[in-house]
């Protein structure tokens, strides 16, 4: 099978299961591939180029490793040329803000180390950032889901790695307001309205409670349940918060999501096609 930097990891694993250990052996960042649950969620969304960026290695490292187990590299010379020339550089207006010191910094590593989700802290901090300033988020890995969400909200981003830390810069592009979610697919409704929506599915309702699961298991569990959800059925989810990182994934799959916030730590979601 021929592969290139845009080949999805899921396609590679489907072709040759030995690719799991081959990629995982490159460096510790790829150990998540050994976890079947995380692999099922991550592999379909990640290309070789994405994996190289997340794993802090060169695209050629992954391609060369896969070539040892039988994969053929497509346009190898072209990929090497692009890899050398395409150095990750910030867009002019982000570089200008960084160079002029217009930076607000938020280190979320302590939050992550405590087992919490820094999403709300980041969103609150973004509201305080003046126009023309960037928010520098310091993390231990590239926050790909966060980047996707903020891109939909009109933010540009730039990622760089320095030592063991990952620095992601977000800048709001004036005049590029976007909807946080698709109004056609995501609905925040009251408790009584949720009860009416549930009745529509009566005997075609599956249920799952993810409130006691640690990240990223709530997202993984919901996606696994949806993959096996029979046609015409709905999934009712008991969650402790609105799953911000999950919503864009569900939108891409054209699921409708109804959300009811009952109280702190008690959120209900009804998901169906």
Secondary structure layout:
Layout: E1 2-3, H1 9-15, H2 19-24, H3 36-42, H4 48-54, H5 59-67, E2 72-73, H6 76-85, H7 92-99, E3 103-107, H8 109-113, H9 119-128, E4 134-139, H10 144-152, E5 155-162, E6 165-172, E7 186-188, H11 191-199, E8 205-209, H12 217-227, E9 234-239, H13 246-252, E10 256-263, E11 266-272
Parallel strand pairs: 1-2, 3-4, 7-10, 8-9
Antiparallel strand pairs: 4-6, 5-6, 9-11, 10-11
Helix pairs in contact: 3-12, 4-5
Tell me what the structure shows.
The protein has 273 residues and is an alpha/beta fold. The chain has 13 helices and 11 strands. It is 38% helix and 22% strand. The strands form 3 sheets. Strands 7-10-11-9-8 form a 5-stranded mixed β-sheet, with helices on both faces. The longest helix is centred in the C-terminal third of the chain and has 11 residues. It is globular. It starts with a strand and ends with a strand. The relative contact order is 0.10.
């Amino acid at each position: 099978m021929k592969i290139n930097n845009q080949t999805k990891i899921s396609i590679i694993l489907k072709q040759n299961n030995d690719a799991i250990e081959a990629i995982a052996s490159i460096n510790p960042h790829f150990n998540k591939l050994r976890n079947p649950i995380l692999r099922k969620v991550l592999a379909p969304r990640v290309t070789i180029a994405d994996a190289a960026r997340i794993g802090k290695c060169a695209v050629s490292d992954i391609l060369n490793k896969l070539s040892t187990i039988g994969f053929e590299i497509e346009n190898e010379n072209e990929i090497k040329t692009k890899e050398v020339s395409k150095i990750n550089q910030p867009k002019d207006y982000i570089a200008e803000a960084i160079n002029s010191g217009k930076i607000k910094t938020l280190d979320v590593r302590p939050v992550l180390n405590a087992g919490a989700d820094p999403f709300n802290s980041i969103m609150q901090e973004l509201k305080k950032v003046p126009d023309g300033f960037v928010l520098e988020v310091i993390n231990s890995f590239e926050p790909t889901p966060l980047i996707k969400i903020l891109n939909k909200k009109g933010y540009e981003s730039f990622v760089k790695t320095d030592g063991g830390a990952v620095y992601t810069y977000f800048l709001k592009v004036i005049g590029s307001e976007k909807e946080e979610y698709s109004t056609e697919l995501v609905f925040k409704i009251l408790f009584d309205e949720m009860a009416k929506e549930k009745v529509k599915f009566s005997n075609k309702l599956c249920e799952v409670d993810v409130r006691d699961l640690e990240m990223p298991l709530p997202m993984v569990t919901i996606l696994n349940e949806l993959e096996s959800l029979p046609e015409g059925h709905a999934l009712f989810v008991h969650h402790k918060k609105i799953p911000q990182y999950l919503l864009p994934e569900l939108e891409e799959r054209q699921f409708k999501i109804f959300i009811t916030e009952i109280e702190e730590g008690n959120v209900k979601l009804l998901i169906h096609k």
